[in-house]
Amino acid sequence: MSERDDAAAVSESDNAQAVRARAAELAATLAHDVGKYIARAARNLPPSGAIPPALSAMLVADVFATHAGRPALTRFDELAPELLTLTGDARLETVRALLIRAAAHERAVRDGDAKRSRELAALALEIESLLRALSRDLRAGARR
Amino acid sequence: MSAPISAGQRRPKLLIVDDGDRYVELAHALLRDYDYATRCTLPGPCWTCPQRPGCTLTHAHDARETDEALARHPDVDVVLLDVAFELPEARLLPSSEPDLERRKRLQGIAILAHLRRARGDLPVVLMTSEEELAFEDAAEALAVDEFATLAGEAAFDARALSLLVERVLARRREAPEAGGYAWGSTPAMGRLRRDATMLARTSLPMLLLGETGTGKSALAERVLHPATERRGPFIAVDLAALPETLVGAELFGTARGAFSGAVERAGRFERADGGTLLLDEIGNLSPEQQRMLLLVLQDGRITRLGESVPRPVDVKVVAATNADLESAVRKGAFRADLYARLNPAAKLRLPPLRERIADLPELARAFVRKTFAAGVDRELLARYLDTAGLRAASAPHAELAIGRAPAAPTRGVVFVLARPSLVALEAHSWPGNVRELELLLKTAVVSALSDALTAVEGRPESSRPDTRRAAGTQQEARIVPIPAKLVRELVAASWTPDAPRAPKRGAENFEVRPGFEVRPGATPHEVAVALERQLYERLYAETDGDFTRMARRLLSGDAATNARRVRLRFNQLGLRVKKRAVEK
Q: What is residue B6's predicted lDDT score, i.e. its pLDDT?
């Protein structure tokens, strides 16, 4: 290989590393701003029986005022497109679909519907789990 | 939802540091077995407070408010710290990081480093996980900090978070450098540990025997009182330090007018109600005071001086002495019935250090960690690490290696005590016991570190180690040998139970001019040391930091040796060489 080829190979490798680092950073931000916050009250609901009003209020805030007072879906849509372009990871589509399903629960949960609240909590935990796994994987990729 | 706290324990106090309300809402809803350090003055928990809605005093939102809350609540046990802070730039800690978003994302790490400087031993739980911390430098900083814990998935799981906090608290209780008790591993200490814990749980009085400096007070405060699981406070009274005429009023309290100038005042027994009272140097009580104490132990009631109606008190009494009480009883100097009430059959004897010399290496390691766990010595360590280019975001940390330096230390500073120095320490008789060992080691490592810092500061900046280069030089700077000569000198001169040595007249025109401030202390020795410190400060200023000239004023004999001794005493007194001073 010529010196020019060597330089091109190094530059390509540097670019790939920068892309992996950016993807890991975006995924970490998603795991924090969406995954972590959405699951706060969901993780603490009692396994059965009535949901304490304090937890119910927290659940509503977690999903529908997740980041700077805006819903989780809004924050997701700010961060996910760039990450999808960088990685093409299908889990991002899955998370978006779950967030849309969660949004459909808003009225019922605000009205105190315990069954729909538990469904919303289950969705929130699934979203958190997917985003954590995505962040973990991309972080491991960035280290290679 | 949180881990059960047994009835007698003080409730651990948590400080939440978060830019928003997420953690505090969760904690107030589900973790009500803890106390919380707030920035408000109202009593009672926040969740019962009528002013709770909209209140922002429930926790700290940035570094400044964290300092404020810790100043108000020095008894905080654990800090729960968020990592990402969405705050205006003016409220972030100063940083060389140009990317504002990154600064906000990692503000919690900056606050952690800030806390480490001020309160190095305070456990911090970072309310984040590895998945959320993509920035490698932050993850590295955490990996080297033994008092920082990542909450991970426990961050928002109240039950798991409570268990995590309990684990952190238990670890802290066990750490000698963080207020625990260094037991060592000799059989005598093993038996003492077992017996002490067992007896502490009973309602019986306890009697601690041991030479001065063996750790009787520390055992009572750090081991026995927590083991009693009593809700009340730990109160100690040094009976040797109180004038005989004041002992009765101090122990039992006074009624207004009991004697000239007497005011309504609770004594130590009442203040220790529900808790533990340590009566140190009980062999010093006069016959009348012994009689009064006997009455308390017999019926659990005290009578304030000037009153006639007794008051009930529920106090676990721990008596300690370095005197031979049995002999005093035989001679009639100590009441036999009081001695019998002190449960002598179950007395605990703390062995002198010379009888547990095998514990010396373990004690030495614990004392070195304790020296640099907080305070001015920790600041000195941080300054050395910074100056030597060894500090990224890691906490200042010090370890002691005995014999050989570790091959490749990767964190903090490792002090190396040579084998011959250990032999010299083990051969010493240790009349001041564990307390003497602690002071000697503190003097040795602080002196060694001061010398290392002076050497690094004397080098041009370009030749100092840097975190990004010169890995070999960096490792070299992490190792600070403790000179064998220094250890020998300290062993020869360390324990001076008397007041400072009187200066010899004639060596230099010496005159202690008036103007020393005499402040009352707990013991005559404490007062003498405070005066000695003022004398050294004054001489240091007058001689422009010239230890040889200071030595000429204070001591006769060989000037070079005396200068060294004066400098060691200077360090022992907690004084520090000023940067610009001429050091000889």
A: 38
Q: Which of B112, B175, B123 is nearest to B13 (CA)?
A: B123
Could you please report the per-residue DSSP string of B161-229?
Answer: HHHHHHHHHHHHHH-GGGT-----S-HHHHHHHHHHHHHHTSSS-EEEE--TTSSHHHIIIIIIHHHHT
User: CA B80 → CA A13, B24, B61, distances in Å?
Assistant: 40, 10, 12
Query: Which DSSP helix (H) or strand (E) runs through A93?
Result: helix A91-103
d(CA A139, CA B307): 73
Structure tokens at B143: 């990996």
State the Cα–Cα distance between residues B536 and B529, nearest whole angstrom.
Answer: 10
In the structure, what pLDDT confidence band is assigned to residue B118 with cuts at 50, 70 and 90? confident
Give φ, ψ of B415 to 5 degrees. Answer: -85, 140
Question: CA quadruple B423, B425, B430, B435: dihedral positive or negative?
Answer: negative
For residue B557, pLDDT beyond 90: no
- pTM for the model stands at 0.52
Instruction: Compute the distance between CA of residue B25 and CA of residue B30 in angstroms, rounded to an integer.
Output: 9
- Tell me the two tokens of residue B245: 């005429």
Would you state the pLDDT for residue B584? 35
Ordered by start, the domain boundaries in chain B are 13-174, 187-350, 353-495, 499-584
Q: Give the pLDDT confidence of A77-129 residue by residue, as tens digits.
A: 999 999 999 999 999 999 999 999 999 999 999 998 999 999 999 999 999 99
* A140–chain B nearest CA distance, Å: 10
Nearest-neighbour CA in chain A from B31: distance (Å):
11
Give B517's contacts (C-beta < 8 A, 6+ positions apart).
B534
Q: Which of A75, A125, A132 would best serve as a mutation to test chain B binding (most B beta carbons within 10 A)?
A: A132
ipTM of the complex: 0.85
Residues of A with Cβ-Cβ distance to B134 under 8 angstroms: 24-25, 27-29, 135, 139, 142
Task: Find the closest chain A residue to B161 by CA distance.
Answer: A44
Largest CA distance in chain A: 72
CATH number 3.40.50.2300 given to B13-174? yes
Among A45-49, B118-122, B458-462, B465-469, top mean pLDDT goes to: A45-49
Are the beta carbons of B180 and B226 closer than 8 angstroms? no
What are the Cα distances from residue B475, in Å, to B408, B448, B453?
6, 17, 15
> Residue A58 and residue B29: Cβ atoms within 8 Å?
yes
Chain A residues with CB under 8 Å of B84 CB are 32
A36, A130, A144: best mutation site toward chain B, by most B Cβ within 10 Å?
Answer: A36
Residues of A in contact with B1 (CB under 8 A): 44
Q: String of b and e for B398-414 (b: at least 16 CB within 10 Å)? A: bbbbbeebeeebebbbb
d(CA B413, CA B380): 12
Report which of B174, B111, B144 is spatially closest to residue B397, judged by C-alpha positions.
B144
Residue B201 CB neighbours (<10 A):
12
Total Cβ atoms within 10 A of residue B468: 9
Could you tell me which CATH number the domain at B187-350 has?
Answer: 3.40.50.300
The phi, psi pair for B469, rounded to 5°, reads -150, 175
Interface mutation target, options B109, B156, B159, B161, chain A, most CBs of A under 10 Å: B156
